Structure formats: C-alpha cells, structure tokens
Amino acid sequence: MNYHQYYQTDVINGPGTRATLFVSGCEHQCRGCYNQSTWNPCSGHLFDEQMQQRIIDDLNDDRIKRRGLSLSGGDPLFPANLEAILSLVKQVREHCPGKDIWLWTGYTLGSLSAAQQEIVDLVNVVVDGKFEQSLADPSLLFRGSSNQEIHYLR
What are φ and ψ of residue 140, in 5° steps? Predict the structure, then answer.
C-alpha cells in the first residue's frame, strides 16, 4: 500500500486532535473530489512497518494527546489497501488503548466484501458513500455531500 500524506497532528478530519493517514488508491473517482492525486494506488510513498510504528508512537505520545486515528484517502477500503489497513487497525487496537479510529470510504456499508467488513468491524466510526458533487454541502460535519452517512459503530 502507498500513502500520500500523514499528519501526526490534525484537528480537521474527525473530532479532537488526531493522527491522520491519507492512503493512495481509489476506484470511485468521484467527480469534484478534492483529493484526486490519491486515486492512483502507485502514487505517493510506500507504507511500511516503520511508518506503521510511527503512527503507533504518535498516538501514544503524551506530549500531544490525540483522541485517535483517521483513515482517508484515496480509499482505505480500496482492495489493494486491505492487508495493510487491517494490520494498522489491529496494531492501533492492540497498542493504543482508548484511541478511536475513524475511516472514510466511498463504499457503502451494505456493499462491503468480507475483507472490507473485517476492517470495519474494528473501527469506531465509518463515513461511507461516494462524494456526490450535486449534493455537496460545506456546512456538513465530517463529510462532503449529503448522501454520505456517518455510522457510529463502537
């Protein structure tokens, strides 16, 4: 898996102060997407064990208290990303007690594969649905268009 950007301290993508990872790869290619540079799964930087450990360390850093991890992109549930995202989510669950995980995806909860669902079962909140430019609304909290839903799972 590749990633485009990692913010060790972020207050935009989810509630509170967070660590946020923008992964590469998205098959939805929504018209009006603000993050088109992430669509190509080969773009960006290689996500490796060192990067995964950096995220775990940042989440556990007491100097800047982070509420949790946000996963966006691209699409964290893009098929080529599933193995690495599952590993990361499991590591956060194991090594970062009390931290929540938010995940943004263009897939809807009702359309997930078994592998995608395995990841969703480990996160706290999923914002699902493709961005629809005709339904765009900048006043919406944590989503870009009114068709997207916020699912509080845990």
Answer: -70, 140
CB 6 within 8 A of CB 45: no
- Please count the other Cβ atoms lying within 10 Å of the Cβ belonging to residue 80: 16
Cβ density class 123-144: b for 16+ within 10 Å, e for less? bbbbbbbbbeeeeeeeeeeebb
Chain-centre distance for alpha carbon 106 = 11
Enumerate residues 6+ apart whose C-beta is below 8 A from 130.
28, 30, 106, 147, 148
pLDDT digits (tens, 9 = 90+) for 102-148: 999 999 999 999 999 999 999 999 999 999 999 999 999 999 999 99
